[in-house]
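Support request, priority: normal
Reporter: lab tech (M.K.)
Component: structure prediction queue

Hi team, I submitted a job for Transcriptional regulator, PadR-family from Gemmatirosa kalamazoonensis yesterday, and the status page still shows it as pending. I've pasted the exact input below so you can check whether something in the sequence is tripping the parser. The sequence length should be 110 residues. Please let me know if I need to resubmit or if it's stuck on your end.
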Amino acid sequence: MLVDELKKGTTPLLVLALLEVQPRHGYELSKLLDAQSRGVVHIHAASLYPLLYRLERDGWIEGRWVEKPGQRRRRYYHITAEGKRQLRAQRREWADFVRAVGQLAGVEYA
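Reply from support: The job had stalled in the queue. We restarted it manually and it finished. Here are the results:
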């Protein structure tokens, strides 16, 4: 239950961080979130695509359709300058939160 609640609040941060590296399509984002978190962060398409649409509407990411021979058309997203500003702010907030929770919970990091 706790992981589900944390996932809801951190998914935009994680998506922006993956898009900071390179443009990606939704399916790729979903697979990377799952793989790089070792299955802890698994986002279903029913949750991911509304998030992508919201981030695009808010101007944090931009999408464009790409067609490749022999493949179906996909929408690739890239982070915008505003998205990069938001990512920096969210990283600072997350680092502060993790430090505070770690201190309160008695968690030590190597």
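The first helix runs from residue 2 to 21. The CA atoms of residues 44 and 55 lie 17 Å apart. Let us know if anything else looks off. Ticket resolved.
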